[in-house]
Design goal:
Helix content is 49%, strand content 17%. The protein folds into two domains: 5-166, no CATH class; 173-245. It has 252 residues and is an alpha/beta fold. The longest helix has 38 residues, at 171-208.
Length: 252
């Protein structure tokens, strides 16, 4: 069952939120641990707040530049970029390249961008990091038109730092592992893209020469590359790897 929700942070009067398409029921477990890791790295609430203030807010209807796409490629869901409908791809824009920032303050800080949303757009299960009060709240809000919320969990940042059974891995370790995993994935992804481009060019030439048999064989090769691409994207498992890094699942 899909469990959507939102997460975000509050600094002064500015509330920033990001929608989560699934697994919002795990926001408390994930984000409490991420805050623990981040506090170990930044050493103080003030320095952590300064890091969040550097996140740039972007409009969803404005397409990211090539530089921004390059900066955020580690958090991009490349499976979404393979949609054939160009208009659909345009609509995805920032949602596509920040896809793997969902449910993660660590990834959000590393990407450095957040899609602009109305402050009252919280809905479903929501996790909020409130720098004004130095606390976190996990609550349920039925819909964006309903101001009534049900608090499910809450804690001060100091209380989080005293929790037992928190992650051993440091922020640096987690980021190093994520970069290594991405490099392995992206090298394989680019290789497939290069092969697809070569095959498509050969198909174009074969069609121009009306070489039907060759076209059919090339089409089969293309289908094999597409299957390999889908398999690669399924094996990426960024969410699973983060759960493992935060010790929410056992090493296997």
């Amino acid at each position: 069952m899909v469990t959507p929700g939102t997460f975000g942070y509050l600094i002064g009067k500015k509330k920033r939120i990001m929608h989560v398409t699934d697994d919002a029921d795990l926001l408390w477990q994930i984000l409490v641990r991420e805050i623990y890791v981040l506090m170990k790295y930044y050493k103080s609430k003030e320095l952590l707040k300064d890091a969040f203030e550097k996140i740039k807010v972007v409009k969803s209807n404005k397409n990211p530049t090539n530089l921004q796409q390059e900066q955020c490629k580690m958090f991009t869901n490349f499976a979404l970029t393979q949609e054939k409908e160009k208009e659909k791809e345009k609509e995805q824009g920032w949602n596509k390249i920040l896809h793997f920032c969902q449910s993660s303050y660590i990834n959000l800080l590393e990407a450095g961008y957040l899609i602009k949303e109305d402050q009252d757009q919280e809905s479903g299960l929501t996790f909020m990091l409130d720098f004004n009060k130095g606390e976190v709240r996990y609550y349920y809000k039925k819909n964006t038109n309903n101001n009534n919320i049900k608090i499910l969990q809450s804690a001060t940042i100091e209380e989080i730092m005293d929790y037992e059974e928190m992650p051993i891995k440091s922020y640096t370790d987690i980021m190093s592992e994520m970069r290594e995993q991405f490099d392995t994935y992206y090298t394989a992804f680019k290789k497939i893209q290069n092969e697809k481009e070569k095959i498509l060019e050969l198909i174009k030439d074969a069609k121009a020469q009306n070489a039907i048999n060759i076209t059919d064989k090339l089409q089969t090769l293309l289908e094999e590359q597409l299957l390999e691409e889908r398999t690669l994207n399924l094996s990426r498992r960024m969410f699973y790897n983060r759960l493992k890094a935060l010790e929410l699942i056992e090493e296997g």
